[in-house]
Amino acid sequence: MMKYFQRMGRSLMLPVAVLPAAAVLMGIGYWIDPQIMQGGDPNAIAVFLVKAGGAIVDNLPILFAVGLSLGMSKDKDGAAALSGLVSFLIVTTLLSTTTVAALQGIAPEAVDPSFAKIGNAFIGIISGLVGASMYNRFSHVQLPQALAFFSGKRLAPIMSAVAMLIVSAILFFVWPPVFSGLVSFGKAISTLGPVGAGLYGFFNRLLIPTGLHHALNSVFWFDVANINDIGNFWASTGTKGITGMYQGGFFPVMMFGLPAGAYAMYRQARPEKKKMVASLFIAAGFAAFFTGVTEPLEFSFMFVAPALYVVHAALTGLSLFFAAFMHWTAGFSFSAGLVDFVLSSRLPLANHPFMLIVQGLVVAVLYYTIFTFMIKKFNLMTPGREEGNDETDEDIDTTIPEGGNKFTPMATKIYAGLGGDENVTSVDNCTTRLRIEVKDMDTVDQNAIKATGVPGINIVGKNSIQVIVGTEVQFVADEINKIRK
């Protein structure tokens, strides 16, 4: 079950990765005309850019349905994406306010208000899962000769439509109480104000290792429980100083805190290993600061020093609490890095965003001080402090294929360390990690893999291993797939 949810988290990265495009368009539009949504005579170029970005943000549930269906399918075929889209269109049409009014024989105004919110991220996720399931089950089914045209991949969208008829019938009765429960949960957290934001930040980081943080994010960031913090912030439809409270506190952590923690780990590394870990922490720290992608840093210590990771989660919660308490807000569409900070800082709902930089400097001092103290006090085995033999197995065949690119040597050595064709059964990747299935975990040479300079390795099951590479992971995965026979 855990592996299934991890696959979901990985698959959701595809539609989420589209959001930076919306950030660029909307950010530039609001930069040109910060009062674009406040009436008056708006700048035509600003309107053009903001509406173009809104086309992505406003249709995020559809992107979830298509992207999740594609990512969860067994061979990533376009027919799976179509199945997810068909699933979403079926359920959102059947459970729209107009259709429900006709089914119940009542006026549209009397329909339960939950049906007006049926086209949300949660329904998009369900649609994507159904679409992927139908594709995996029916894409290779052969029908009788008379119906042969509808066999195989053409059958998947058809069966998705049939399946969603059943799902829609269930949701007709289940959705109103489920929606009410989600709204109640969101309202309960919202009533806690800054404390609720702090609790959210704490659990958001704690769930990163499992990939389940996406489920928590959907409640606060998207329109699952009427909070929709990201959408409302970028659409400027909220309360200044309040909307964005579930985003602003991440900037001090991702841009300043984690890089400072990385510097603390570098300072505490063994002298002979400082050069090796420096390359890791410089690259990972820059990724966190510039783009807000923190997984390379977090995975470098979360399993070797879990107590330190819990402290990181607590500091994240503290940062969100304080930013919300001070009503300092900024927003992001992808993650809390410099790019989104600059683009969002002139949006109408951005409230004293540059105070988040001041907070970030304080957070950096806290991270560096606490990380240094804990590493020394408890002798934590953070990168560069590991004991044991650092040599790799010289018998491993790491012959570099001719041609290729700069990622080929790294991919070749990682693949050899995994055991090569005889041991590797599948290779996939998410935003920053290689996700590999192997026959025998004992065959994997972790030292050989670490020698390539990757931030870390995560054993997630008897036959499942993750290699943390960073934001260029796709290119490494592509090279490994070229090497595989």
From TrEMBL:
The chain crosses the membrane at residues 12-32, 44-68, 80-103, 115-135, 155-175, 244-264, 276-293, 299-323, 354-375. Residues 1-387 form the PTS EIIC type-1 domain. Keywords: Cell membrane, Kinase, Membrane, Phosphotransferase system, Sugar transport, Transferase, Transmembrane, Transmembrane helix, Transport. The active site is at C430 (phosphocysteine intermediate). It is found in: Cell membrane. Residues 408-485 form the PTS EIIB type-1 domain. Its main location: membrane. GO terms for cellular component: organelle inner membrane; plasma membrane. One of its GO terms (biological process) is phosphoenolpyruvate-dependent sugar phosphotransferase system. It is a multi-pass membrane protein. It comes from the Bacteria. The keyword RNA-binding does not apply. InterPro entries: Glu_permease_IIB, PTrfase_EIIB_Cys, PTS_EIIC, PTS_EIIC_1, PTS_Glucose_EIICBA, PTS_IIB_1, PTS_IIBC_nag. One of its GO terms (molecular function) is protein-N(PI)-phosphohistidine-sugar phosphotransferase activity. This is PTS system, N-acetylglucosamine-specific IIC component. It comes from Isobaculum melis.
